[in-house]
Amino acid sequence: xxxxxxxxxxxxxxxxxxxxxxxxxxxxxxxxxxxxxxxxxxxxxxxxxxxxxxxxxxxxxxxxxxxxxxxxxxxxxxxxxxxxxxxxxxxxxxxxxxxxxxxxxxxxxxxxxxxxxxxxxxxxxxxxxxxxxxxxxxxxxxxxxxxxxxxxxxxxxxxxxxxxxxxxxxxxxxxxxxxxxxxxxxxxxxxxxxxxxxxxxxxxxxxxxxxxxxxxxxxxxxxxxxxxxxxxxxxxxxxxxxxxxxxxxxxxxxxxxxxxxxxxxxxxxxxxxxxxxxxxxxxxxxxxxxxxxxxxxxxxxxxxxxxxxxxxxxxxxxxxxxxxxxxxxxxxxxxxxxxxxxxxxxxxxxxxxxxxxxxxxxxxxxxxxxxxxxxxxxxxxxxxxxxxxxxxxxxxxxxxxxxxxxxxxxxxxxxxxxxxxxxxxxxxxxxxxxxxxxxxxxxxxxxxxxxxxxxxxxxxxxxxxxxxxxxxxxxxxxxxxx
Length: 482
Known about the structure:
40% of the residues lie in helices and 12% in strands. The protein has helices spanning 12-18, 58-66, 69-75, 82-102, 118-129, 166-178, 185-191, 199-222, 239-257, 294-304, 336-345, 356-360, 373-379, 411-418, 424-436, 455-472, 476-479, and strands at 2-5, 24-28, 33-37, 41-44, 107-110, 134-139, 146-150, 157-158, 272-275, 310-313, 322-323, 326-327, 348-350, 365-368, 384-386, 399-401.
């Protein structure tokens, strides 16, 4: 039995798996691809044999890679052309297809919530191209545990523990109902600290990252040159690139100040407020892969609901430049050009300082890609349109996924669809409890501070997950022989 993971080939997880029924692993890391088996040890990079030439359909692969432009914006220095970047992504993806296709795993279980880095996105494209079932371990904010979901769109949720989320969900619903100005604790931890709001500190962090990268490169120069690795070689942001992005971000924040006079009474019951996201983040791409930009959603809303005014409410996290040692580059998207485009589209701008509760009082319809605002709205009996595939799923009561709506609609039509739901909080409780029960321990994913003490229990749960999935994914003929 073979599986694919994102892990070092000699790490504790790999060692544990190979002591079980797993006899070989494909281990993908940012720096290389490794094949480890019990008899042969570790083989890496171009030394992995690929006797069979897997058929490559370039247009099909590039169709998916071209969708990754938000990740190219986020991770690649703008001095390199998009064409060159896409070409490098194609080369890397094809290399993955050849290796994985010659050593096909039963399943892939990826220790990341979503493929928000270029190497993980290419890996996801390769796995889908080969038809290999892929599961992501998604750290959620309700209880800090990991959901096991199939694919980026979270087609199914795998439950492998006796954990019940009922008490956590019940407490969360109580907070929403009892406090109209409720703000989640994890949001407060991210937005409130002074250092997170400082562009100078973000510059300091980025400079530290660059120095660390330079040191690694310097050490590498002293070692024998290794050209056998299979990885992505892309130019990252330099110091002055980061400074330019931070300046654009600060200019946009100043423009937002001019909107502080906004009167909430302008929003009418038949209007729509799109609650924006912090960009670039996984919650916009790849989790909303068909609508990764804010403008994508706004144009769709204006055309789909021609009788309504559309408003954009900026995310409160626009005030931060970093969090927990991680640098954000919001100025790539949130800049003066974005501000001007809102005006040209005729979209009203609601400042982030206006609490969402004041907007709810206007009785309007809401839209989001994957935001938690949809959960809060549903608890309070307010409908929300979803443009992505959020961690709480697309079947949450009182939400409507954009794929299931007609090309033309009205706000009243959406409201009529939920008018018969008399106890929305109970319906939401049932849905979320079912969604988040059966999850596993989370060592770090999606959390501001890693939890190393959860690692041993997580790896035991990972092993149980492997056994569960590999039995489920065996051919029916094989299952019948057991």
